[in-house]
Amino acid sequence: MGGKKLDNTSSNGNGTNADNNNSNNGAVGANSNNFNSNPNTTTLKITVKPPPATIHQSPVINLDRGDPSVFEPYWKKNGGKCTITISGHESLSYFSDPHSVCWYMEPELQDAIRRVHLIVGNARTEGYHVVVGTGSTILFQAALYALSSSSAVVAQPMKVVCAAPYYSVRNSNTVQFCYCPSSFDLV
């Protein structure tokens, strides 16, 4: 961290830091009033200034929810290596595969994902569904919604497996999108 001081203050719930000795020369400081008024939310404000060519628009990382835009500099630099061309006649419908749990996913993408996992050997895909999305919260919601029905979930709580660290919205999203009782099990 280049000799920078870490400031690990925490919020006392009224929008001020519990440690009044908070100074602006710290590299990292925790503050709960950067994004919302939830006193249980902690955000990490980074004040270290990298060279102008690599600086990101926002020096704040919200630890309450994910934001993939933090990877924008990487994709701007390497995006040309991952270019995909889609012909005009392809993907005309939102229903790429109406028989799949993830009906909006192109069958070729599903085949490629299964092939990569088979080659790498890090996941079994046979007998499992492939669900895609633009972030972990979206994937979590999509998988739960697609694989559960309101009548089955209400009959007994659904087991939700989520390894730490996970975003604080997991519990509320599980209840909202899967019609789960509020006392669902978080394994």
UniProtKB/TrEMBL annotation:
Bias category Low complexity: which stretches? Answer: 8-43
Annotated Gene3D superfamilies: EGF-like, alliinase (2.10.25.30), Type I PLP-dependent aspartate aminotransferase-like (Major domain) (3.40.640.10)
Q: From which lineage does this chain's organism come? A: Eukaryota, Viridiplantae, Streptophyta, Embryophyta, Tracheophyta
MF terms (GO), sorted A to Z: carbon-sulfur lyase activity; transaminase activity
The signal peptide, as residue positions, is none
Q: Matching SUPFAM superfamilies, A to Z?
A: PLP-dependent transferases
- Write out the entry's keywords from A to Z: Aminotransferase, Transferase
Q: Which species?
A: Linum tenue
The Alliinase C-terminal domain, residue ranges: 61-177
Q: Which cofactor does it need?
A: pyridoxal 5'-phosphate
| Region feature Disordered, mapped onto this chain | 1-51
- In its UniProt entry, what is this protein called? Alliinase C-terminal domain-containing protein
